[in-house]
Amino acid sequence: MSVVVETYPDIPALVAAAADRLVEAITSAIAARGTALIVLTGGGTGIGLLEHVRAHDDAVDWSKVHLFWGDERFVPADDDERNEKQAREALIDHIDIPAGNVHAMAASDGEFGDDLDAAAADYATVVADAIESGSDANTFDVHLLGMGGEGHINSLFPHSPPRWRPSGWWWAWRTHPSRRRGGSR
Predict the structure, then answer these.
(1) Fewer CB atoms inside 10 A, N or C side of the chain?
(2) Eight-state DSSP code of residue 92
């Protein structure tokens, strides 16, 4: 496998190129298997990418796309820091995607209340069920990764204790290291 490094003159050019590649990956997955499984990210660049995709949403059959999140803040559904809320405002609320194809983790004011462990465990089940339900796909087609200012990716923070859990993909942070105001998965 060869490594290709591409550079762009600025963030808007990077966002546009990444969004175009995302649309291409989605349409290729749909052509190959009839479905696309996409893991979203938050943050300024990730949300900018979704806004760019929205401008070209006619290229995608959204009824065949399933959306997930690689990390999420365990805050109320209407909190501006919630990645799902940001993604809905940037893309999801503007495209014709079935509600059942949007697989978000429960919010802190949702069905599990403030039980972060229960919400994270439920999300692990949601993801596993969605991947296995009638699809030839057993993995994600694209997992978007952003990087926070302090270097975190998918709620994996530098200088934090190891979080590897061979028994499952999901874990719960009691205190979100970048904000210290609530939990994050």
Answers:
(1) N
(2) G
